[in-house]
Amino acid sequence: MNRRRTVSSAAGSSRARSFRGRPAVAAFVATAALVVAGCASQTAGTGPASAEPSAAPEITLTFAGDVHFEDRVAELLDDPTTTFGPVAEELTEGDLTLVNLETPITTRGTAQDKRYVFRAPDASVPALIAAGIDVVSLANNHTMDYGREGLADTIATAEAGGLGTVGAGDDIDEAFTPLRRTVDGVDIAIFAFSQVDDLAEEWAATPDRSGMAMAFDTERAYAAVRAARADSDLVVVLPHWGAEGDRCPTTRQQEFAAGLIDAGADVIVGAHSHVLQAAGRMGDAYVAYGLGNFLWYSEGLEEPFSARAGVLRLTVQGREVVRSDFVPTVMTPTGQSAVVTGWRADLARHNFDELRTCADLDPVLNDG
User: Is 338 helix (H, G, I), strand (E, B) or coil?
Assistant: First the structure.
């Protein structure tokens, strides 16, 4: 069941997207009912109704891990409506869904001098949209595998298809500007930063060059988060960080997470390790260091278990994560993730919770 509610883009955004909302008549009826109730209260002689502050609405944010469309996964694009398979149902159980897009979307550009080079066709955008994905992070070590031409194509193709992008832009100001979405009146600012060192200097956005928002520019990252904290209801950050294959966060991850939280981040969900990493509370904020591979070309049922991943749903009220639900998944021979059920799911959740031991995170009261 798709529980998506009213979601809108910030007015004037260069990456605007149209979402379906509730029928206007429903809002009119609800407003009229409140007016009648208020009048009735005063008529009964109780005087003006005492207006108690209404509780902040609960919204649900859904996250999954790394996505690209290489090798066996490329074949799934023959029908973009079914590319992600049945697991896509888990992505629509919420109000806003975000993943890490580990590939440029382009047919142009020059392959960069690096070991792994990815790219995807335009059909990947409708595949992402059909799966219920609203926003993708571009701040990672593959978005610019085909240079700045590839980056420009990725952003343009995503925008044309109604997919939000964050973490890259035409210059440094745009790369560090949050993507804004509003869910049931909750104004959300979304950032993405890459902490991966490979080609970081070459791919970094500058005042006169397109590129990505790099985490090594920590003061700019923290300043951007502080500014967003002042004019939004919720700040979400999607870092690309950590050591590949390591289920424990590095010191750099932990220090950057702490800095982002001090600056005002409420929810931090990372990627890059290609394995599950810990998730839980750090002070008043929520941190998930890594969610593994979600749509991927390689298998890995042996250590470090890169085929094991999951979908994370966070219920947020105000700035607080009041519930976290983890849906364990495993990679199938097609490259799609499948939901794990029964005792295997219970074991997978237990193992996921145990990862907090090396991450110094606390559980959310209502972990599920």
Answer: strand
Per-residue pLDDT of the chain (368 residues; tens, 9 = 90+): 345 555 676 533 434 333 333 333 333 334 333 333 343 333 334 444 445 556 889 999 999 999 999 999 999 999 999 999 999 999 998 899 999 999 999 999 999 999 999 999 999 999 999 999 999 999 999 999 999 999 999 999 999 999 999 999 999 999 999 999 999 999 999 999 999 999 999 999 999 999 999 999 999 999 999 999 999 999 999 999 998 878 999 999 999 999 999 999 999 999 998 899 999 999 999 999 999 999 998 877 666 778 899 999 999 999 999 999 999 999 999 999 999 999 999 999 999 999 999 999 999 876 66
| Distance from C-alpha of 280 to C-alpha of 257, rounded to nearest angstrom | 12
9-18, long-range: CB within 8 Å, 24+ apart, which pairs?
A: 9/164, 9/180, 9/181, 9/182, 10/180, 10/181, 10/182, 10/187, 13/179, 13/180, 14/174, 15/159, 15/164, 15/165, 15/179, 17/134, 17/162, 17/163, 17/164, 18/162
Residues listed for the chain: 368
From the DSSP assignment, how many helices (H) and strands (E) are in the chain? 9, 17
Residue among 54, 56, 62, 55 at smallest CA distance from 4: 62
Distance CA 285, CA 72 (A): 38
Backbone angles phi, psi at 166, to 5 degrees: -150, 150
Q: What one-character DSSP code corresponds to residue 141? A: S
Q: Which two tokens stand for residue 136?
A: 């993708």
Neighbours of 364 (CB within 10 A): 19
Degrees to nearest 5, angle at CA 176 with 175 and 177: 95
DSSP annotation string for 221-281:
HHHHHHHHHHH-SEEEEEEE-S-TT-SS--HHHHHHHHHHHHHT-SEEE-B-SSSB--EEE
Measured CA to CA, the distance from residue 205 to residue 159 in angstroms comes to 19
Output the six-digit token pair for 162.
């109604």
Peptide bond into 104 cis (omega under 30): no
**Which tokens hold the place of 268?**
């931090």
